[in-house]
Amino acid sequence: MNNILGNMPPVVKSLLLLNVIMFIITMLGESQGIPMTRILGGYVFNSPNFEPYQIVTHFFMHGGFFHILFNMFALVIFGSALEQVWGPKRFFIFYIATALGAFFLHQLVGYIEVRNIEEQLIAAGYTDLYSLQDKIVELQNGYIQTFNVIPNTNSLVQDYIAGISTPVVGASGAVYGVLVGFGYLFPNTKLMLLFPPIPIKAKWLVTIMVGIAVYNSFQNNPGDNVAHLAHLGGAIVGFIIVLFWQKDKRKFY
Fold first, then answer.
1. Every domain of the chain and the residues it spans
2. How far apart, in whole angstroms, are the C-alpha atoms of residue 62 and residue 27?
3. Under 8 Å CB-to-CB from 180, ≥6 apart: which residues?
4. Which superfamily does CATH assign the domain made up of 2-245 to?
5. How far apart are CA 88 and CA 82, in angstroms?
6. Can you say where in the cell this protein is located (predicted)?
7. Angstrom distance (rounded) from CA 163 to CA 132
């Protein structure tokens, strides 16, 4: 373990340790009844649950073991290569910028969707949205079991509850930025997929993953709890930054 950590560049190592520590703290807190994800996850700006610190804390949170495993594996493999090329300071700036870019694209779209639902609720007769939000918070905290809604608006209220009560968590946006950066600098490097175990060049792997994020961003799948827009936001910001930084510079193999 010491050899593995010792061979990592400093920023990647620090990010890995921070994410793992936060994951452990989250698991311990949740097991004691402390709603860590609700406190530190990132909510849309027009949610009563939103707090400014969530802009940063959300990308050190993860939704489960495989979520953090994939993100940290990608960070170590691809982020280490970028940090060795750019140096610690530039890589740190890149990582934070892509994480924030992912968050703001996801939140912008979420804000618009929630605002649209609010307008429909007002048209349906909910003149006091703050009172409705209070009821939702009380429901979340277990103070009440249910509350009365205006007839024929149940599905609209459920969409509203989901919109303001579902936090985004994870470093996936920044990881997608890292993947794009690696694919740009090392386009012809061959990688071995795990499933299926076939070799593929970095540029094609990144193209496929970003393409999937674009496709899923425009799909309305009720059971899908993956923040595809955050993935896309991180990829877009990562591409813009690396394109600017690498002007008139050669790509690596």
1. 2-245
2. 10
3. 206, 210, 234, 235, 238, 239, 242
4. Rhomboid-like (1.20.1540.10)
5. 9
6. Membrane
7. 13
Bridge partner list, 190:
201
* Sign (positive or negative) of CA dihedral 124, 127, 130, 135: negative
Task: Return the pLDDT at 106.
Answer: 86
User: How long a stretch of residues is the chain?
Assistant: 253
**Amino acid identity of 189?**
T
pLDDT, mean of residues 94-118: 92
Can you say how many angstroms the Cα of residue 248 is from the centroid of all Cα atoms in its chain? 32
Asked whether the beta carbons of 101 and 173 are under 8 A apart, the reply is yes
Amino acid at 236: I
Would the pLDDT of 225 be above 80?
Answer: no
CA 245 – CA 181 distance, rounded (Å): 10
For the packed helices 228-245 and 172-185, what is the interaxial angle rounded to 10 degrees? 40
Buried b (16+ CB within 10 A) or exposed e, 162-196: ebbbebbbbbbbbbbbbbbbbbbbbbebebeeeee
Say what the pTM is: 0.87
Contacts of 243 (CB under 8 A, 6+ apart): 184
pLDDT in tens, 125-136: 888 888 888 888
Rounded CA separation 59/57 (Å): 6
Average pLDDT over the chain reads: 87
Query: Which three-class secondary structure state does DSSP give residue 191?
Result: strand
Q: Is the pLDDT of residue 146 over 80?
A: yes
